[in-house]
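User: I'm designing a mutation panel for NADP-dependent oxidoreductase domain-containing protein and want to avoid disrupting the core. Could you give me a predicted structure to guide residue selection? Please restate the sequence first so the numbering is unambiguous.

Assistant: Good idea. Sequence first, for numbering, then the predicted structure tokens:
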Amino acid sequence: MAQSQQLKKDESVEEAYFTLRSGHRIPALGLGTWKAETNVVRDAVYNAIVECGYRHIDCAHIYGNEKEVGEGLQMAFDAGIKREDIFVTSKLWIKSCVPEKVRPALDTTLSDLGLKYVDLYLIHWPICLSEDASSPPKKGQVLPFDTVGVWREMEKLVEQKLVRDIGVSNFTVKKLEHLLANSTIKPSVNQVEMHPSWRNDNVLNYCKKENIHVTAYSPLGSSSTDLFHAEEVIQTSEKVGKTPGEIMIRWLIQRGVSTIPKSSNKERIKENMRVFDFKIPDEDMQKLSSVPTQKRTNPGGELIVTSEEEKESILREFWEGEL
């Protein structure tokens, strides 16, 4: 029976961070705030930082709660936490994905968060929608995405010291290739969906080759994947003596991937942090990487599909074979 390998204290601390191409360090584990209710996210952010030791908060304008996230951050700073010790990620929404809207969008985020800079600013999706776009959008509301023009404005944010690192989210290998060929400051991060039911190996391997760090969202899958009852997860959980959630988060970290599980529950937030005192043995890592069902749970159809009849072809074209 395989057993977890215990980490020495210094190894545990070291594994809590990954180094980006810029030299800055990103925490291996962060608190996601997607769908976190405005009336609870403030306390969740504060508790995660002050009581549970989190050092990465992931947010976005479209989540509609950056003001409350900012309040939670300020509470943590008032409690003695230093700003430079907290890594804050935010994202440029698709209705602002035109060059002239990049800086104003960041200004809004900084104002809402009450910060002078964010550590990482991501292009949320490689999509551009008109201001009046519905969900799902109508034909004519999905606009051409000017990757190079938007990225040049992102680069300016680094030069202006409003952002320490810039990156992308939901980018395929082909989109990354295009960006790398047309950029001065290369993307530090690609944030993508990743869990045992969607390993995303193609993107992960390419990003490792190009020194682009990968952050995983939806690390525990979704209700449709039911990974908490997957045989591979349960068997590893029982062998290693850790919960299924801890196993899935640790699996990502051992792949060299940081992750941002979302929770407003204090006990779950604590549980998610208990992943730095053990290692999953190689044979169990392989088992977790062999879950047969591989399916993306967040293809973004509500953002780009303008016709149900053309849904399959639109998504296939958007994901460029990575669906």
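For picking mutation sites, this is relevant: Residues 5-319 form a domain with the TIM Barrel fold (CATH 3.20.20.100). The radius of gyration is 19 Å.
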